Structure formats: structure tokens, C-alpha cells
């Protein structure tokens, strides 16, 4: 059953990439309707550039209402900040053209730097603040008295589009982020059960690897939806904490299942019943329709399995180092059962939120990773590209080059922090180029001959509805969004359309040249290397583990899991398309969750009174050695004695026929050693 589900899952996923669903059609029709409403309202208000209202609808359009509100909110903030900056910069420096474009380029660099340190949608708002100042400031070049009117008009057009998009997404057959979180979490639980069932039964490694990658990616999406849902409805705030904690537990369960698959146990009387019960449970969970409607039976079974797994096996049947191996695997099995149980409880908490109790004393926070080197590179690149093209514009006096400057600023800032900015920008170029003939036929041929809003709808709706359907498909969203935005920009709909191909082609050429120049800048000027950024995140994860080893105060398990999830969330887009190498890094990231939890378990044991003081001292010495290994050993270097010490110390505990607490310490040592041996390069200091 598990193998059939694994095969069926991937077949369904591939089929779903080309077949629009009902929700896709709702999204498409809702988006086009909102765009038409925004354009009509812009006509009624006699705004100078009504196309911006309709373009804004497509820019902020998202399948989930909370995502629309979040993107719209930060687009509004970014536009306001950019408008204020444009007014200030133009007022102070507007009399000197070279100084003006230099200050605007520096402003774009600053906003790109901030954007690169933030996450979506906050990052989008910061980037928008940069190039909005350019969009408003350049048309006011030589006429600084117009900048306030331009800023107000731009803000009015964008606010109108945001309001129309937000209201339609919330009122017309809405797809709410809060509901989407529950639905996606259910899918994650079933996928986790499928993965665990395959792992426990020796499933196909390639299929399991693909499902492992998907589960990690889905945790990223869950984290993003958490932020969107809080903007969508303040009542979701009590459920935000369970989402974050549940994501951590999901990763812990995934890590435990992977460890049991990587280290299949020999036939053992103590382990076989636990493993069989877990396999039966996850197989039934994955195959039973409506299995998650009531989680209480599963929670009860997982509780019983966890208790059984934590019982010490009979010493007469499991002697020496093999006994430690058995206890180690039983510990991992118990951890899997406990983590899956907490995920199910997290699902219940989302469906029936309870008032969150007040926190006690704050635990020490682990450092959130900010990629300052990458952000600095992006800032320099955006500023330099904008300044060079602006210098060309000022030198040649080519009027259409102003549009090129703006597009260079937009693309070099907006896509700077993407793992592969060249590929994303190229997709944006393809969508823009594809929009050009459609915009020419509609705007220069059809509408001048057949004016009026009715004809406009007749020509535009058949183009924009398929475009919006493509926007709902993750494979085509980038190209489709670029097509929609630039189709409307080239079309420039207003109430009196005329045939005037000269300005149309000149403006279109400036846009296409601007995008190509930005792509060239991404290739030539400080080219991005996703692996450098990934290595910096991996280094931060090793430093997290070293901090767990050495810090006087021990953070809560949930705090570490949240941080580990956040690190993997940042790592995922950088390595997910890198094949085996990327899978190894992601696998190491998930294994780091296991190592961190075992370090916490050792720290907790050493602070208890159930173990001798010399054992506590030995644990402290081991953790110091482990921190040294994490911080200083480079890939390819021989492993230090830390791993050997862990295994030898675990074996010596078993030989002394220790108590349950001591054997759990031995199991933690073995788990840490196994994880580090599985991913030796991940747990080594990179040479960069």
C-alpha cells in the first residue's frame, strides 16, 4: 500500500502541473474581475495612468487571500516609502542631474541591501521602496515641482489596485490562509506517514529522496502561510505559535524516520515489535480515508509505542555494544512516535485553538541568520547597474533610455536575492517579450478601431484569463506574471486609444533592453553563487550546535526546533535544484535537527541528579570536543577523536550494565556519532 501511494503521489503531482483545478479557475476569474473593476474605478477617478491600478491587481494576485493582503500591505508601505524618498531626494538634489541619479542609485542599493536581509513579503516591500523612488523621480527630472503630484498619483493608483484585489480575494469564494495551513499540514502528515512507511519497509531510495525533499519544501510553505494568516485575520494569532512548534516537530519526525532508514537494525527481539507497530501505524494512517478527522486513536497508539520503545530491553538478550545499538534505535523510534504525536496535536490546536498561556522566563535566543555578505553584493550590484545606465542616459540624451534605467533598477533590485537571479530575470524577459505582440494587436490595431470598455473586455479577457490560470501554476507563475504586468504596461489602457506605433515600439524596446542589461549585470558584476550563501547558512547551523554545546543556559527544545526549521527554510531554495549534492546538504540539515536534540538531551541529563558527577564532567568534555569539531574541522580533513570518543564511551556504559538513564546517554552519543558519519562534510567547517 505504501509503495502504491508513493508511486501514485508522483503521478498525481505530474498530472496536476498541467490540469487547472477548480480553485485555479476561481483565482483566474477573480483576478481578472478585480483588474477590470480597478481599471473602471481609475477611469471614474480620472487618474493619469489607470493601467497602474489594473497592473497592481496582477502584481499582488495570489491564490490565498492572506497572501494578497500581505503582498498588498507591503507594496503599499514600499510605495509610500519610495514616494517620500523621491520627494526628498528630488527636492534636495533635483537641480543637479548627476547628483540626482547618483543619490537615487545609492537609495536603490540601500533598499536592496535591506530587502536581501528580509523575507517575503517584507523583502518585496523594501525592494519596492528603492525602485519606486526611481519610477517617480525620473519623470520629474528637470521639473521637481511635479514630484509631489507624481507621488500622490502613483500611490492613489496602487492603493486602488490593492483595495480591489484585497476585497475580491476576501469576499469572492475566498481561499483563506488559515484553511490552507490546515489542509497543507494534513497533506504533510500523510506524506510523512508515506515516507516513514517506505523508510521502515526498505522503500526505493530515489522515491524516498524525492518525498523527503518535498516535505522539507512544504515546511517552508507552512512557515510562509503562517505570516500570511496572521495578516488575514487577527484571530489566527493564538494559532501562530502551534504552527511554528508543529513545523519543528514535523522536521524532528522526518529526521528520525530518515535515521531509522539509514541505519536499519539487525534482527533483534526488542526492536522488531516496535518497528513493526510503527510501520503498521503509518501504513494505516497513509491509506485510510479521513484518517486525520479524529487524531485521538492515533495519538493513543503513538503514546503506547513511545512507552514501549523507551523501556530498557532485557540485558540477558542484548549484550555489549549491540545492546547500545538496540537502545539507540529504540530511542530514535520513540522520538519519531513522540514527534508524530506532537504534530497530530498541533493539527488539533489549529482546528480548535486554545488561549495561549503566558510565558515564563525568556530562554536565550539563538541567532537568526542574516546573509550580510550576500546582501552587500546585491546592494553594490543594483547601485552600480542603475548608475551606469543612468550615466548612459545623461550622456546620450536618449529620451527612451529613462525607461531602460527604471527597468534595470527594478530587475537588479527585485530579483537580487533569488538563488538564481539570471534564470528568474530571463523568465521575466520571456514573459515581457511574449506580451509585446498581444499588446500591439489589442492596443494599436483593435481598440483604436473599436473603442469602448465593452470592446476592451472582449479583447483583453480571453488573453488575461489563461494568463491568470498560468499564474496559479508554480511552473509558469514567473513568466505568466511578467506577461500580465507588461501586457498591461505596453497596452496602457485609457479611454481614448489611438494608433501610434512609434512611441509604442520605442517604449517597448527600452523595457526589453533594460531587462537584458540587468541580466548582463547579474552575469558579469559580482555573479551570485548559491553555494556560497548555502555554505554560510550551513556554517550558521554548525555554530548553533556549538552554541548548544557551550552555552550556560539551555534553550527550550521548541526554540531550537523553530530555529532549525528557519535555517532549513533559508537553505531549501538555494540547493533544491542541485541534484545529489543538494540532497546531501538538505539531508545534513535535517540530521542537524537530530544532533541538536540529542545535545539538548545530554545537557539535560548532565544537569540532573540521577547520574554521577564524573559522568556529568565526561559529558561536558565530550560537548566541548564536539563544538571544536563543528567549528574547526574542514571538509576532507580526518575526523577528530570526538566521534570515536562518543562510540567508545557509549560502549563502556553498556559494558558496565548501566542504569536506564546511563543507557539513554549512551544512545544519544551513538545517535550523534551516526548522524555526523552519515554527513561528514555537512558537519565540517567549509574552507571559504
UniProtKB/TrEMBL annotation:
Protein name: FUSC family protein
Predominant subcellular localization, coarse grouping: membrane
Keyword Cell wall biogenesis/degradation part of the UniProt annotation: no
Record keyword Cell membrane present: yes
Entry keywords, A to Z: Cell membrane, Membrane, Transmembrane, Transmembrane helix, Transport
Compartments where located: Cell membrane
Pfam family, one: FUSC
Membrane topology classification: Multi-pass membrane protein
Transmembrane regions: 27-45, 51-69, 76-93, 99-118, 125-146, 158-177, 379-395, 401-417, 429-447, 453-469, 476-492, 504-526
Classification via InterPro entries: PHBA_efflux_AaeB/fusaric-R
Organism: Mesorhizobium newzealandense
Amino acid at each position: 500500500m505504501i509503495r502504491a501511494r508513493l508511486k501514485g503521489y508522483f503521478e498525481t503531482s505530474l498530472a496536476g502541473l498541467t490540469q487547472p483545478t477548480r480553485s485555479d479557475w476561481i483565482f483566474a476569474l477573480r483576478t481578472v474581475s478585480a483588474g477590470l473593476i480597478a481599471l473602471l474605478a481609475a477611469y471614474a477617478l480620472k487618474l493619469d495612468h489607470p493601467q497602474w491600478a489594473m497592473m497592481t491587481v496582477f502584481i499582488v494576485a495570489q491564490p490565498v487571500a492572506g497572501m494578497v493582503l500581505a503582498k498588498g500591505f507591503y507594496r503599499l508601505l514600499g510605495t509610500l516609502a519610495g514616494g517620500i524618498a523621491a520627494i526628498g531626494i528630488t527636492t534636495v538634489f533635483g537641480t543637479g542631474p548627476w547628483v540626482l541619479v547618483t543619490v537615487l542609485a545609492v537609495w536603490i542599493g540601500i533598499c536592496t541591501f535591506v530587502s536581501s536581509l528580509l523575507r517575503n513579503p517584507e523583502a518585496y516591500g523594501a525592494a519596492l521602496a528603492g525602485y519606486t523612488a526611481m519610477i517617480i523621480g525620473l519623470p520629474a527630472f528637470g521639473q521637481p515641482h511635479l514630484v509631489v503630484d507624481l507621488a500622490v498619483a502613483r500611490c492613489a493608483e496602487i492603493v486602488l489596485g490593492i483595495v480591489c484585489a484585497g476585497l475580491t480575494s476576501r469576499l469572492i469564494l475566498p481561499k483563506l490562509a488559515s484553511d490552507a495551513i490546515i489542509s497543507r499540514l494534513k497533506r504533510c502528515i500523510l506524506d510523512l506517514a508515506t515516507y516513514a512507511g517506505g523508510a521502515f519497509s526498505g522503500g526505493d531510495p530515489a522515491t524516498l529522496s524525492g518525498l523527503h525533499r518535498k516535505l522539507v519544501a512544504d515546511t517552508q510553505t507552512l512557515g510562509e502561510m503562517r505570516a500570511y494568516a496572521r495578516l488575514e485575520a487577527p484571530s489566527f494569532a493564538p494559532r501562530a505559535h502551534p504552527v511554528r512548534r508543529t513545523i519543528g516537530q514535523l522536521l524532528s519526525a522526518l529526521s528520525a524516520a530518515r535515521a531509522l532508514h539509514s541505519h536499519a537494525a539487525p534482527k533483534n527481539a526488542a526492536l522488531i515489535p516496535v518497528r513493526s507497530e510503527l510501520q503498521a501505524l503509518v501504513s494505516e494512517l497513509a491509506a485510510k480515508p479521513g484518517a486525520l478527522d479524529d487524531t485521538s486513536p492515533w495519538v493513543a497508539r503513538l503514546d503506547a509505542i513511545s512507552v514501549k520503545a523507551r523501556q530498557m530491553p532485557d540485558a540477558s538478550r542484548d549484550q555489549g555494544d549491540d545492546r547500545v545499538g538496540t537502545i539507540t534505535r529504540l530511542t530514535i523510534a520513540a522520538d519519531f512516535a513522540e514527534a508524530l504525536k506532537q504534530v497530530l496535536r498541533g493539527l488539533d490546536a489549529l482546528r480548535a485553538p486554545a488561549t495561549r498561556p503566558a510565558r515564563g522566563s525568556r530562554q536565550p535566543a539563538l541567532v537568526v541568520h542574516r546573509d550580510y555578505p550576500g546582501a552587500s553584493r546585491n546592494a553594490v550590484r543594483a547601485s552600480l547597474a542603475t548608475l551606469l545606465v543612468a550615466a548612459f542616459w545623461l550622456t546620450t540624451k536618449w529620451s527612451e533610455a529613462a525607461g531602460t534605467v527604471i527597468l534595470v533598477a527594478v530587475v537588479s533590485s527585485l530579483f537580487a536575492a533569488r538563488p538564481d537571479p539570471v534564470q528568474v530575470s530571463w523568465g521575466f524577459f520571456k514573459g515581457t517579450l511574449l506580451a509585446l505582440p498581444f499588446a500591439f494587436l489589442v492596443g494599436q490595431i483593435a481598440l483604436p478601431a473599436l473603442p469602448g470598455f465593452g470592446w476592451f473586455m472582449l479583447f483583453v479577457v480571453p488573453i488575461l484569463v489563461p494568463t491568470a490560470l498560468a499564474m496559479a501554476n508554480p511552473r509558469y507563475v514567473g513568466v505568466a506574471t511578467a506577461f500580465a504586468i507588461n501586457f498591461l504596461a505596453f497596452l496602457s489602457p485609457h479611454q481614448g486609444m489611438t494608433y501610434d506605433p512609434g512611441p509604442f515600439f520605442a517604449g517597448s524596446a527600452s523595457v526589453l533592453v533594460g531587462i537584458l542589461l540587468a541580466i548582463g549585470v547579474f552575469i558579469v558584476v559580482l555573479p551570485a553563487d548559491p553555494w556560497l550563501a548555502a555554505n554560510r547558512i550551513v556554517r550558521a547551523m554548525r555554530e548553533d550546535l556549538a552554541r548548544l554545546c557551550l552555552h550556560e543556559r539551555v534553550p527550550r527544545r521548541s526554540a531550537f526546533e523553530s530555529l532549525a526549521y528557519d535555517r532549513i527554510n533559508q537553505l531549501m531554495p538555494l540547493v533544491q535544484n542541485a541534484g545529489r549534492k543538494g540532497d546531501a546538504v538538505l539531508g545534513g540539515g535535517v540530521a542537524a535537527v537530530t544532533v541538536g536534540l540529542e545535545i539538548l538531551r545530554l545537557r539535560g541529563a548532565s544537569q540532573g541528579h540521577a547520574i554521577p558527577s564524573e559522568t556529568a564532567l565526561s559529558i561536558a568534555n565530550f560537548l566541548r570536543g564536539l563544538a571544536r569539531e563543528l567549528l574547526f574541522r574542514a571538509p576532507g580533513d580526518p575526523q577528530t577523536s570526538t566521534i570515536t570518543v562518543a562510540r567508545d564511551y557509549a560502549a563502556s556504559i553498556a559494558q558496565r550494565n548501566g542504569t536506564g538513564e546511563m543507557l539513554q546517554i549512551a544512545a544519544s552519543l551513538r545517535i550523534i556519532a551516526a548522524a555526523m558519519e552519515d554527513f561528514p562534510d555537512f558537519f565540517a567547517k567549509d574552507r571559504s
